[in-house]
Amino acid sequence: MTDFNQPISGNELARFSGPNSFMRLPAANSLDGLDVAMLGIPMDIGTSWRSGTRFGPKQIRAESAMIRPYNLQTGAAPFDGLQVADIGDLAINTFSLRDSLRIISESYDAILMHDVIPMAMGGDHSITLPILRSIAKKHGPVALVHVDAHADVNDEMFGEKETHGTVFRRAYEEGLIDPAKTYQIGLRGTGYAATDFTEAQGWGFQMWLAPELWHKPLSSLGDEIRRDIGDRPTYITYDIDSLDPAFAPGTGTPEIGGLTTPQAMELIRALKGVNVVGCDLVEVSPPYDPSGNTALTAANLLYELLCILPGVTYR
Question: Which of 53, 73, 134, 135 is the most exposed place for a label (fewest CB within 10 A)?
């Protein structure tokens, strides 16, 4: 009988102490036997506005100490059926974005030699491109659920082709994602031109602007996306700036008029049953939220993502 890793209970060791791992799970130096690997990518050299996401993984882990292992609202008990551990942070090159993207891709190549689902804590959104490059080597072009205030389909930024704002154009051009199974949710704000959105729609991307979702539950949208995806391997990337700054001010490129935290949870929960092969949560910038609420929200959304992975036990 498998002995599954469990978070340290707050009744055994005070939550303000213990290891700084996600939910105070065991740290692992080996991927052998793991179903899910939590990892940090502490990087902000791909950003174009406010920095600070290099501190995201550390604070997400710190705030995750509050989360208990059983999901009272959905019945999910992820640690009763999945072997989960925190494998630490990738050693990016803080002086070079290009080299850091190489390091991420090569690290993921090694991770995906094992039958494990990687869950990354960012870090800015540029980390998703090298992750998708590795994911596509193993699974082919994947379905993509992208929750964000921004489409991130710029051609270049300051002459650079690989930044946090160009990720999904590069992913489309390189055939890493299935454009007909790419869903962008929560888009809003201002743009440089009308083509900021319409060009990607021409590729096949399905987009939901935030105003279309105001005052509405997102469970039906999640159900629709889940049915459309079927059993296709799927990557989920969650930019914390998809939430309104009232809920998540600690981010690099905030946009007013965003999603609420209940909507975020509804959307994730409705994706239960999707064949998730990896996910990330990005753009948490702790210096812009001294309260820690943005990182607390991010930690809980990662837990919700963990609760919908294939193999999760429900009680």
Answer: 73
